[in-house]
Design a protein that fits this description.
Layout lengths: L4 H9 L17 E7 L3 H14 L4 E4 L15 E2 L9 H12 L1 H5 L10 E5 L2 H16 L5 E4 H7 L14 E5 L3 E2 L2 H14 L3 E3 L4 E7 L2 E7 L2 E10 L5 H6 L8 E12 L7 E4 L4 E5 L4 E12 L7 H14 L8 E11 L6 E4 L5 E5 L9 H14 L13 H4 L17
Helix pairs in contact: 2-7, 2-10, 3-10
The structure holds flavin-adenine dinucleotide (FAD).
């Protein structure tokens, strides 16, 4: 069923009785060509591009819970392509281009809103770093505009320009940055994959990965054994646990990241803003809530909740930047589990077991990567070759030390991840 304005009008006038579920609820088959473990953003987009780009439809996505209830539905929805160094920058540039056509491509409104993202800087040194980053972005065909203090004041007059501790020197403006509706991204990819024949199997936890003679042969699940020629582990914060089912130890730690949303307010914040002195970022959702977050909780955990010191840290940063938000009531906070790599960059690669693939290590930034990651992993699975824009995301860089990718562009500082 294609969605369009006429369909909405007709359904509205006839009691909305003609809508059908956006995807089927199939029983798992005994065998597939490809099994994807994890029905988050990355797993669903991989399935979609396998079917759409490569015509591979004998594919199942196995999700232990319900589709889209993991990190893809728990993040602060920032979408951007303002990475600095080669390795990451071309990948996120490619991903943003996919975002720009995504609603039309999926025939599903993912509410991608290019409202512009502004990274504030607060010292001469930070300004120099952002100038370099902006130049790198422009050189690669992306957009960046350097704003001085008055330029920022014109766009964001409600920031506190008077406080002396972290004075606002200016900002790097990325007009094509913005946000998207997270659930809609999962649902849109799910619908697109399902309509091309992919089986999306919910409430199906993978409990074992079968390996014979160095080759993957299938998976064990809570709904029985499933044979497969190829298996991809796309389980975000649970990647370490799931890879261990195949006897692999990944260079990943799982950490909690929290987010917060206030009561709905009238439009007040037009852009996505990030504070350069304290890791705080904020935007306003289409429902009016101020959505914001900060740093990781800084200790490994699988609990989808956070600790109070980080709540305090985030609130302090927000109040320092824009004291007006102190008047808004926080409605909810929650946590998600981040798959952190030592260099802050992801892994899209073949595992050292034939037929097994890895897509993980997205840290706190994998939402913006959903289209690009699915596109690149589908390419790798279908062709056996890495996608050129994701060729640096190799697993062996952590063993050899060659090709490590400094995600922040700030040098090898582990505490930044
Ligand atoms: C609070 C917060 C804020 C964030 N903000 C941003 C942001 O602004 N911008 C950005 O780019 N990124 C952001 N992120 C990061 C982003 O959400 C993640 O990197 C990304 O969603 C991870 O990929 P995914 O969507 O596939 O993960 P998930 O949605 O977590 O998908 C993984 C799936 O695997 C399933 N699974 C796990 N184990 C098994 C098993 N054994 N069998 C079957 N299924 C299994 C899980 O149930 C889950 O559904 C944020 C994350 C959080 C938590």
């Amino acid at each position: 069923m294609r969605y369009n304005a006429l369909k909405i009008l007709t359904e509205g006038l006839t009691g909305n009785k003609g809508w059908r579920p956006a995807w089927r609820t199939p029983e798992p088959k005994p065998a597939y060509d490809i099994v994807i473990i994890g029905g988050g953003g990355h797993g669903l987009s991989t399935a979609y591009y396998l079917a759409r780009e490569h015509g591979l439809r004998n594919v199942a996505v196995l999700e232990k819970g319900r589709l889209g209830l993991g990190n893809v539905g728990r993040n602060t929805t920032i979408v951007r392509a303002n990475y600095f160094l080669p390795g990451n920058s071309e990948f996120y540039s490619m991903s943003l281009k996919l975002w720009e056509g995504l609603s039309a491509d999926l025939n599903y409104n993912v509410m991608h809103s290019q409202r512009g993202l502004i990274n504030l800087f607060h010292s001469d040194g930070q300004r120099d770093a952002f100038v370099r980053r902006g130049n790198a972005m422009i050189n690669q065909g992306d957009d960046a505009v350097l704003l001085d203090r008055e330029g920022v004041r014109k766009m964001l007059p409600y920031l506190d320009f008077e406080q002396g501790r972290f004075p606002i020197y200016g900002g790097l403006y990325h007009p094509r940055g913005g946000s998207a509706r997270h659930d809609a991204v999962a649902w849109g990819y799910a619908r697109g994959a399902d309509s091309r024949g992919v089986d999306l199997v919910q409430n199906c936890e993978v409990t074992g990965i079968d390996v014979e003679g160095g080759r993957v042969t299938g998976v064990q699940t809570t709904r029985g054994a499933i044979r497969a020629n190829k298996v991809a582990i796309v389980t975000a914060g649970r990647s370490g646990q799931v890879a261990a089912l195949a006897g692999l130890r990944l260079p990943i730690e799982s950490h909690v990241l929290q987010a917060f949303v206030t009561e709905g307010l009238k439009p007040v914040i037009d852009h996505v803003i990030s504070f350069g002195m304290g890791h705080f970022y904020i935007s306003q959702s289409d429902k009016g809530g101020l959505v914001f977050g900060g740093d990781l909780d800084f200790y490994p955990s699988y609990a989808q909740r956070g600790n109070l010191p980080m709540v305090e840290h985030v609130m302090e940063a927000g109040m320092t930047l824009m004291p007006m938000i102190g008047k808004a009531k926080v409605l909810r906070s929650w946590g998600g589990i981040m798959d952190m790599t030592p260099d802050g960059s992801p892994i899209i690669d073949k595992a050292p077991i034939d037929g097994l693939y890895l897509d993980c290590g997205w840290c706190y930034g994998g939402f913006k990567a959903v289209p690009g990651s699915g596109f690149a992993l589908a390419h790798l699975i279908a062709t056996g070759r890495p996608h050129p824009d994701a060729a640096g995301f190799r697993l062996d860089r952590f063993r050899t030390g060659r090709g490590l990718m400094d995600e922040e562009g700030t040098g090898a500082q582990h505490n930044l991840h």
